[in-house]
Amino acid sequence: DKGGWSSFMAKEISEEPEAVANTLRGRIRDGEVVIPELDGLDDLFAGISRIIVIACGTAAYAGQVGKYAIEQWTRIPVDVELAHEFRYRDPVIGPDTLVVSISQSGETMDTLMAVKYAREHGARTLSICNTQGATIPRESDAIVYTHAGPEVAVASTKAFVAQVTALYLMALHVGRVRGTVSAADAAAHVAELEAIPAKISQILEREQPRIEQFAHWMADTRSVLFLGRHVGYPIALEGALKLKELAYIHAEGFAAGELKHGPIALIEPGQPVFVIVPSPSKSGEMHKKVVSSIEEIRARGARVIAVAEEGDAAVLPKADEVLRIPLAGPFFEPLLAVVPLHIFAMGLATAKGLDVDQPRNLAKSVTVE
Ligand code: F6R
């Protein structure tokens, strides 16, 4: 039931705040992360020296976002791999490896086979999954469910923010178990997480109509590029994937720092480029670096659409369009910056008259390898 929305996708984007809130619910007590599903499983995290996150598509981008926070908070090295690539290259894994799989459906065959492979080769496995009782969690040593609610539209939106939230909860839990995160720091990160739902709601209320209008103007666009740095990089990849899937136009995401190593050759007058701008106050040097990327592409005629923090005055004169997100601490911005990109992809597909819930050639759950 679309509940009065024009599409399941519109409904599910509107549910991004509750997807985060529901994933947090019951898992925070007095500023500490408490994950009942992981009770008694401390040994799972005690003996590991590395984490490999495996997933496909949007879930893999959630994993890429999670990597930054997991490494920072647990000091355990993290690799993120596409499940189908992991499985077929004789990966070096063993009892010191925790393989964290991420899957909305819990049935993605590529991910399932990778989890089975990891188990057979002695790794420990933890599943982050949105579907109760699905196959992948049943094949794993531990489960942390996302509580995004059922996702019907084929392309994933609200599950993504729930996956990032679950990864952050897991990272804080492991950081506390291993003593790499202090109680005070954990409480500060938890407070950031708890503030996210209201901030996403703010984007939906203040920016959604403007973004949809803007997407309408862009309906004839044939190619869109996305740039991001650090946690903004996987968000750029996610923005590009959603646009391909929903609007069938060429879209590519790049690490902003990689621009001069090749992709800048693509910039010609009028080329639309979304740039995920890190916080000027919270990201240190990175903000300056991204602003200088904007200058480089603008000098070559790019049409710059910046996703930037509300108070970021430096970006305003340099961008053709600024999509505003509220202030959030380092690591937490991706949970906000992705929202305008989801709205934009849906808006552009809608402007082209396409079925946003059921894009061509795609299935919700890919149960073949
Ligand atoms: C993108 C999308 C796909 C899925 C991928 C993994 O919008 O929907 O890329 O994210 O197929 O699916 P799950 O999470 O069910 O394993």
From TrEMBL:
Residues annotated as domain SIS: 41-180, 214-359
Q: Which reaction does it catalyse?
A: D-fructose 6-phosphate + L-glutamine = D-glucosamine 6-phosphate + L-glutamate
**Gene Ontology molecular functions:** glutamine-fructose-6-phosphate transaminase (isomerizing) activity
Is Cytoplasm one of the keywords UniProt gives this record?
Answer: yes
Q: What is its EC number?
A: 2.6.1.16
Residues annotated as coiled-coil are none
Q: Where in the cell is it found?
A: Cytoplasm
Query: Which residues participate directly in catalysis?
Result: K364 (for fru-6p isomerization activity)
Q: Which domain of life is it from?
A: Bacteria
- Which UniProt keywords are listed? Aminotransferase, Cytoplasm, Glutamine amidotransferase, Repeat, Transferase
What is the uppermost EC class here?
transferase
**The keyword Repeat belongs to this UniProt entry's keyword annotation:** yes
Function, as annotated, reads: Catalyzes the first step in hexosamine metabolism, converting fructose-6P into glucosamine-6P using glutamine as a nitrogen source.
Q: How does it assemble?
A: Homodimer.
Q: What is this protein called?
A: Glutamine--fructose-6-phosphate aminotransferase [isomerizing]
Identify the species of origin.
Microbacterium insulae
Instruction: Tell me the stretch of the parent sequence this chain holds.
Output: 249 to 617 of 617
